[in-house]
Amino acid sequence: MSRNPGESIQELAARIRHDAVTCNFPAIKDPLDEAMRTSFMCSISNEAVLKALFKYKEDELTFAKAIAVATETEEAAKVAKETVQWDEDDTCTQGGPQ
């Protein structure tokens, strides 16, 4: 499974939840959560999001936590991009409404 172009983190998570219901992994403590988390992480192509996710130990990162971290990371990047803009002379200017 991979993330569809333009698909939000929440939409991807919903697809993974739907697909994971039929999985059975008896040797795993919480198989559904681990399957969804793994599928979710494998579907992410944003390097910043992956770096943020891999900062957590495996036993600390639930599916819900992975979604929250990914959403926060993407939102932070969006805000940063909107805040700092480059003008035509390649000089950095503080953006935002004035």
Number of E strands: 2
Share in β-strands: 5-15%
In angstroms, what is the radius of gyration?
17 Å
Overall helicity? 40-55%
Cα shape: elongated
Stretches with pLDDT under 50, minimum 5 residues: none
The strand line-up of the biggest sheet is 1-2
Q: Note the main sheet.
A: 2 strands, antiparallel
How would you classify the helix and strand content by structural class? mainly alpha
Q: Order of SSEs, N→C?
A: HHHHEE
Q: Assembly type of the shown chains?
A: single chain
Total DSSP helices: 4
End-to-end distance, in Å? Answer: 43 Å
Mean pLDDT: 83
Descriptive overview:
By secondary structure, the protein is mainly α. It is built from four helices and two strands, in the order H-H-H-H-E-E. A two-stranded antiparallel ribbon has the order 1-2. The chain starts with 8 loop residues before the first helix and ends with a strand. The model has no long low-confidence stretch (mean pLDDT 83).
What's a concise summary of this model?
The chain has helices spanning about 10-20, 30-45, 45-55, 65-85, and strands at about 85, 90-95. It is mostly helical and about 100 residues long.
